[in-house]
Amino acid sequence: MVIQQELSMDLPVIDLDLFLSGVHDSPEVIRECKKAADALVTYGALILRDSRVSEDDNSTFLDLLEDYFSQPLEELKKDERPELSYQVGVTLENTEKPKCAVDEPCLRIIERLDPAERPLDISAHSPDPKCRFFWKMIEKPPYQTQFPSLNAANIIPQAGSLKERWSPTMEQWGKSMKNAVASLAEMIAVGLDLPVETFREAGKYGPHILAPTASDLVKYGKQDTILAGFHSDLNFLTIHGRSRYPGLHIWARNTGKRIPVKIPQGNYLLVQAGKQLEHLSGGLIKAGFHEVVVNQRTLAVIENRKLQYPERPLIRISSTFFWHLSSDFDLIPIPQLSARAHELRTQSSSLIEDDEVVYEPMKVGQQVQNELKHINLL
User: Fold this and answer.
1) Is 238 exposed, middle or buried (0-12, 13-18, 19+ CB in 10 A)?
2) Which terminus of the chain has fewer Cβ atoms in its 10 Å neighbourhood, N or C?
3) Position 147 confidence tier, pLDDT thresholds 50, 70, 90
4) Residue 376, helix vs strand vs coil
5) What is the 3-state secondary structure (H, E, C) of 206-246?
6) What is the pLDDT of residues 180-223, one digit of tens each?
7) pLDDT of residue 5
8) Is 193 left (phi over 0), alpha (psi -120 to 50) or beta?
9) SS3 state at 306
10) Contact 254/348 with Cβ under 8 angstroms?
């Protein structure tokens, strides 16, 4: 297969420290908030700097998940909960399907891309050869949710070498990511000329998920292997720490360019828009498309890790957190954002998305269940 030419990372960098330490109605803070909102409108993604985030915490988290996913299959299967739509515990490889493999609007988006900017072909792609672990980071609502399966209790692995490390490590890294993305939700609201609490309050009781994804690079470490097929996320915002292995590509909404993600070292995180934000904004902000593949940079890191850390498992772990709106929240497009979305569509001919979408009112929990059916998890 011909190797596609990759572009340099060119996402806006947003300074969360400025927002957290500054006066929210000061000109410099408002400018940074508008920069964040504009980044999501244009790219569907941004790089977030948060000095509270520790690279050491991320490293400890990655070590733990490498150890977890190197266990025998029979141990992993103990943590599987298909009856809960895999929304807690482990999802094993070849279970989750990329929606875009069969979704006509998504396939048309791929067709609109320049051939050199398209994802690896998923038209005949089997379910993804990735595993996941879902660890909920929920504040229990003061009411009875209509969607209990989306708000189930966590599973703690019972292996002796993991049990004591598990909850402290997951909670430490999960809280860092949750705090960062919840504060960013406030910035985005300000940047869209909405009250600062608009999105954060809507997500206060959301079934947020620390969701590391694992790919066995001994089994699936060949050039051009699709680890996670071209797709977008169903939640509100997705935030990622640095993975040890490259391979994540995203697509910028207004250019159709395929961008290899390179998160800078230190306290930087990648944030992508999800379907709930798209729905609430009436399509002003679109859920960002992305894929994870084995490319030449992945192969180079694999060889380097073999030399430097011969005792460590060759498993690619994504350091990922899904921030959700509350399951019982009414998902209805905000009129002023819908109007801006319509204006954007009429003014631009460079958008890669399909024809105008109708965002029907529904509960967030119903939207999540609809999406889970499409990816073979419900």
Assistant:
1) buried
2) N
3) confident
4) coil
5) CCCEECCEEEECCCCCCCCCEEEEEECCCCCEEEECCCCCC
6) 999 999 999 999 999 999 999 999 999 999 999 999 999 999 99
7) 38
8) left
9) helix
10) yes
Closest CA to 319 of 253, 239, 261, 246: 239
Q: How many angstroms separate the CA atoms of 202 and 277, rounded?
A: 11
Side chain identity at 82, as an amino acid letter? Answer: P
pLDDT tens-digit readout, 216-253: 999 999 999 999 888 889 999 999 999 999 999 998 87
Structure tokens at 101: 């493999």
Cβ neighbours for 282, distance < 8 A, ≥ 6 positions apart? 333, 334, 335, 337, 338, 339, 340, 341, 342, 359
Question: Position 68: which residue type?
Answer: Y
CA 84 to chain centre: 21
* Host H or E run for residue 202: helix 198-202
- For the record, the structure tokens of 183 come out as 């504060």
Question: Both tokens of residue 354?
Answer: 């399909």
Q: What share of the chain is helix, strand, coil (3-state, %, to 5)?
A: 40, 15, 45
Confidence of residue 334 (pLDDT cuts 50, 70, 90): very high
Name the residue with tokens 């798209």. Answer: 278
